Amino acid sequence: MIIAETGGSRRNIYELFGNKKTLFKAVMQDQIDTILTKIQVPDPATDPRPIQQQLEALGTAFLTGLMAPDALQTMRQFVVYASEWPELSREAYAAGPAILHARLETYLTALAAKGDLVLADIPTAARILAEMLKGGLDLEALMTHQYTVPHHKIEKQVRAAVDMFLNGTLPR
Question: Domains of the chain by range and CATH?
Answer without folding.
Answer: 2-39+51-167 (1.10.357.10)
